[in-house]
Design a protein that fits this description.
The protein is 47% helix and 9% strand. It has a three-stranded antiparallel beta sheet with strand order 1-2-3. The chain contains eight helices and three strands. It folds into two domains: 49 residues; 111 residues. It is globular and about 60 Å long. Helix 2 crosses helix 7.
């Protein structure tokens, strides 16, 4: 099925490449053409509607097409992290909590290596969960460690909340996904020792 005709731009930026069986999204971003497979079927009108919904969610998460912040240039994560470590809120934390935050938010940390150069309004739940999953697989991080990192990310993002134009922090959805993964792992614990990248260890019973 070719792209349905519409009186509005309902299916803008969506197309089906030759020899492909799924709807793709394409757009010029900063002078470069970006094309992504939405994995939606073009065979029915519902498939095109799903493609349009995928496009809208993607553009919202990436901030595409939205007006620039009224407060000037959006700061990068690496610019706000040291400001948080010098903030009054940080100074009121317990010493052990401060030490953990410094470990996660210093310039040579794994977190800053990934997100230091990213504007805070471009950090999405997908970005965070994909990075945490990779760390879990490479370093054996458990669910609790991932959640602690999300707490650190959220603290930094809140420093630049005015630049997010009222959007919910990406850490909220990321935390929900990881928590759901943990619940699923616990539900399958009787069938397998591990489930997914965030492992839940079975507690031994006291003798």
């Amino acid at each position: 099925m070719h792209r349905p005709k519409a009186k509005t731009n309902r299916f803008r930026n969506l197309y089906v490449p030759k020899s492909r069986g799924t709807i793709h999204y394409a757009r010029m971003i900063e002078g470069k053409r970006v094309a992504i497979d939405t994995k939606c079927s073009p065979a029915t009108i519902d498939g095109w509607r799903d493609g349009a919904a995928w496009r809208d969610k993607y553009e919202e998460a990436k901030g595409i097409g939205k007006p620039q912040s009224a407060f000037g240039a959006v700061p990068r994560f690496g610019e706000l992290a040291p400001l948080y470590l010098k903030s009054v809120k940080f100074s009121h934390l317990a010493e052990t909590t401060k030490e953990e935050a410094r470990y996660k938010l210093t310039a040579d940390s794994a977190l800053l290596a990934r997100f230091a150069g990213t504007p805070i309004d471009e950090i999405t739940a997908d970005d965070l969960t994909e990075w945490l999953e990779a760390q879990a697989q490479a370093k054996g991080w458990g669910t609790q460690t991932s959640l602690h990192y999300l707490t650190a990310v959220a603290a930094v993002l809140k420093m630049g909340r005015k630049h997010l134009n009222g959007r919910v922090l990406a850490t909220v959805e990321a935390r929900e996904r990881i928590s759901e993964q943990r619940r699923t792992a616990r539900g399958r614990l009787t069938r397998a020792p591990t489930s997914g990248p965030w492992r839940t260890r079975k507690r031994s019973r006291p003798c």
